[in-house]
Specification:
Layout (H helix, E strand, L loop, with lengths): L2 H16 L6 E2 L1 H14 L6 H7 L8 E2 H11 L10 H16 L9 H14 L8 E2 H14 L6 H14 L2 E2 L1 H9 L9 H15 L5 E8 L6 E9 L2 E5 L7 E6 L5 E4 L9 E5 L4 E5 L3 H20 L4 H161 L3 H62 L17 E2 L2 E2 L4 H21 L1
Antiparallel strand pairs: 1-2, 3-4, 5-6, 5-11, 6-7, 7-8, 9-10, 10-11, 12-13
Helix pairs in contact: 1-5, 6-9, 6-10, 7-10, 12-13, 12-14, 13-14
GO molecular function: DNA binding
Subcellular location: Cell membrane; Cell projection, Lamellipodium; Cytoplasm; Nucleus
InterPro entries: EF-hand-dom_pair, EF-hand_SWAP70_N, PH-like_dom_sf, PH_domain, PH_SWAP70
């Protein structure tokens, strides 16, 4: 909880006390006095005209809490620093509010004790207005108070009180808390002094941040003598006084993350020694016994550890954890309530569906009864009809038997026709196989023809090259003509041989053409045979679908006509042509 939030809680009590008519508004004159007192206690320069200027646009009536908050934030809380005495600030706010709300005559505690409870309430109350303390914080405060008084906590008594509290409300305001403690409801058997000391101890721990206190001996820095002092440990310092009434303060030991505390050996007649090493000085201290010595060392080490980690005082951290736990439980409770509402809604829907189903079942039952009556009425009629239908069925059965016998004869005839068609199909497959072989022969002849065409093209290219070389040779000088003439004669002889080879190839082409015509004749015969079988199959009611021959590719044609060679003939002729070519090359 920040400083602003702590201050706002005390100011809220003072503002509420000034609202005499309980209408939520306070007059401007009272707000001036309150603002002046706040500025005085918190050591802030007060501007008496600021309030009038802030509300110059308002009417002459009183100002609400929401209307006073902007002025409070801007002119007071924004300027406040932590250099004022918070106890004086709380006493000023307490003085404004307790006379109106507190009935001192009915309480077992003093006004000072009531003030301390009021401060504890502000520390433990929720951060929402109007300020209240929930049951968890009430239990925490009462436990602390019981432990401080040296009593034992009676869980059953608080559970009974919590049941009474929950039947009315789940929280208490500050005056109800003061009345609860002041009437001695949870301190029966304790005298007023014990109750007052318990309240003071809880107040010092929660409000003044006193973590430990007690008498110990301290060694002086100048005179080196040992003097008894009242020590008070806080989260960031250790203060020591002449007595426990705190009337005269003798000094402070400032604590930080670099401080340390270590035990010492007994010396100078003093026992239970330990030393506190701060950034400025070292302090030698003697406790009354070993237990207190260990308690003080552990408490100081805990404070130094918290300062190193940047964590707040233990009770502040515990308060924050309790609030976070309550918020978490509240969120879980809200989620559970939401789920319960959803389940309740779903249950209502299911109940409605069940009601609708029940009505539907009743309607179905009545409808079924009516249907049963109608069925009984129609059953007799159906029996009579069934008798007549049975007689008709007998007659129809006889007719069906006669038809089955007739169909059996027709089936035998049909099976005979199927067997004939199967024989025709096998013959047709043989014809198609012949056609496939003829097409394969044709394809082989076409490949041979293509190779011959490539040979012819290659030969023609060679002849053209020879002719070009001859033309270039003619254009040379006269001196070279004689030598070239001899070469020309040799080449002409080679050309003559090539021409003879071409003629031989032409003769072979003619033979291949005759073979191609023979194959084409076979293919035509196979096609005719296929067509005749197709005609026969069509006459037998189209029970079989013929496999149609594929389309014939266009045969390759060279300059002298259709060329057709077999694979072996083409290889033989390629070999012969290569030998002749090698002979011509050697001759040149």
């Amino acid at each position: 909880m920040t400083l602003r939030d702590e201050l706002l809680k005390s100011i809220w009590h003072a503002f509420t006390a000034l609202d005499v008519d309980k209408c939520g508004k306070v007059s401007k004159s009272q707000l001036k006095v309150l603002s002046h007192n706040l500025c005085t206690v918190m050591k802030i320069p007060h501007d008496p005209v600021a309030l009038e200027e802030h509300f110059k646009d308002d009417d002459e009536g009183p100002v609400s809490n929401q209307g006073y908050m902007p002025y409070l934030n801007k002119f007071i809380l924004d300027k406040v620093t932590d250099n004022f005495d918070r106890q004086d600030f709380n006493k000023m706010c307490w003085t404004l509010c307790y006379r109106k709300n507190l009935q001192q005559s009915q309480l077992l505690i003093s006004n000072d004790d009531a003030f301390k409870i009021w401060c504890i309430f502000n520390f433990l109350s929720e951060d929402r207005y109007p300020l209240i303390m929930v049951t968890e914080e009430i239990e925490y405060f009462l436990r602390k108070l019981t432990e401080a008084m040296g009593g034992s906590w009676v869980e059953e008594r608080f559970e009974d009180y919590k049941l009474q509290l929950n039947s009315k409300q789940q929280c208490l305001n500050v005056w109800e808390i003061i009345s609860l403690v002041g009437t001695g409801h949870f301190s029966k058997g304790m005298d007023r002094q014990t109750l007052s000391m318990g309240i003071s101890e809880v107040y010092q721990e929660l409000i003044l941040d006193v973590l430990k206190q007690g008498y110990m001996m301290k060694k002086g820095h100048k005179r080196k003598n040992w003097t008894e002092r009242w020590f008070m440990l806080k989260p960031n310092s250790i203060s020591y006084y002449v007595g426990e009434d705190l009337a005269e303060k003798k000094g402070d030991i400032l604590l930080d993350g670099n401080c340390s505390v270590e035990p010492l050996q007994d010396k100078e007649g003093k026992k239970c020694l330990f030393i506190i090493k701060s950034s400025q000085k070292s302090f030698e201290i003697s406790a009354s016994d070993k237990k207190k010595k260990q308690e003080w060392i552990q408490a100081i080490q805990n404070c130094v550890g918290l300062l190193r980690q940047g964590r707040p005082a233990p009770h502040c951290e515990a308060r924050q954890k309790r609030r976070e736990l309550r918020l978490k439980q509240q969120a879980e409770q809200e989620e559970l309530e939401l789920r319960m509402r959803e389940l309740q809604t779903a249950n209502e829907v299911k109940q409605q569906e069940l009601e609708n189903m029940r009505k539907a079942l009743e309607e179905a039952a009545s409808y079924a009864a009516e249907e049963e009556k109608r069925r009984l009425l129609t059953q007799t009629e159906l029996q009579d009809r069934y008798k007549m239908d049975l007689e008709r069925e007998k007659m129809v059965r006889q007719q069906m038997e006669e038809q089955v016998a007739k169909k059996s004869t027709e089936l035998e005839q049909y099976l005979q026709r199927v067997r004939e068609l199967e024989d025709m199909y096998r013959k047709l497959e043989d014809a198609l196989d012949d056609e496939k072989r003829a097409r394969q022969d044709e394809e082989a002849v076409r490949r041979l023809q293509a190779r011959l065409l490539e040979e012819e093209a290659t030969k023609r290219a060679e002849l053209e090259q020879i002719h070009l070389r001859q033309q270039r040779a003619i254009s040379k000088t006269e001196a070279e003509k004689q030598e070239l003439e001899k070469e020309r004669l040799v080449k002409e002889s080679a050309l003559q041989a090539a021409m003879e080879q071409l003629e031989q190839l032409e003769l072979e082409r003619q033979g291949a053409l005759q073979q191609y015509q023979t194959v084409m004749q076979k293919l035509e015969d196979a096609t005719n045979n296929t067509k005749s079988w197709k005609h026969k199959v069509a006459e037998h009611e189209g029970l079989l679908r013929l496999i149609q021959p594929g389309s014939k590719a266009q045969p390759m044609i060279n300059n002298w006509g259709i060329a057709s060679f077999s694979e072996g003939e083409l290889s033989l002729r390629e070999k012969q042509w290569q030998e002749r070519k090698n002979q011509v090359t050697q001759a040149q």
